[in-house]
Amino acid sequence: MAGRIFFVAGAAVGYVLGARAGRRRYDQIKSAADRLWNDRNVQKGVNEVVGTVQGFVKEKAPEVQDAVVGQAKKVVSKVKRTDDGEPSPSI
């Protein structure tokens, strides 16, 4: 589904950028895109996707935080060891 949306969006952008039909055709395409984007069904789908992504992010945030904190602690411990006069580790 997302692949089709990106393809259609890319095709529309390519046509607009590559067309030599002039400003009138650009305005027609833009108004059609605006009507499509503001369509109730499209916005419903967008809101569903946004809700799904937000739920996923809220679910995975603690795992990401733990991973980042763990890696930061490893880096800090390596830096502290090199400050004590030991040779710096190769990264």
Cα radius of gyration in angstroms = 25 Å
Number of separate structural domains: 1
Largest sheet: none
- What's the rounded overall pLDDT mean? 83
Provide the helix percentage: over 70%
Structural class: mainly alpha
N-to-C span: 41 Å
Number of helices: 3
Strand content: under 5%
Question: What quaternary form is this?
Answer: single chain
Poorly predicted runs: none
How do the helices and strands follow one another from N- to C-terminus? HHH
- What's the shape? elongated
Strand element count: 0
Gist of the model:
The protein has helices at residues 2-18, 23-37, 40-83. It has 91 residues and is mainly alpha-helical.
Blueprint of the fold:
Blueprint lengths: L1 H17 L4 H15 L2 H44 L8
Task: List its traits.
elongated
Tell me what the structure shows.
This protein is mostly helical. The protein has one domain. The two termini are 41 Å apart. It is elongated and about 65 Å long. It comes from Amnibacterium kyonggiense. This is YtxH domain-containing protein.
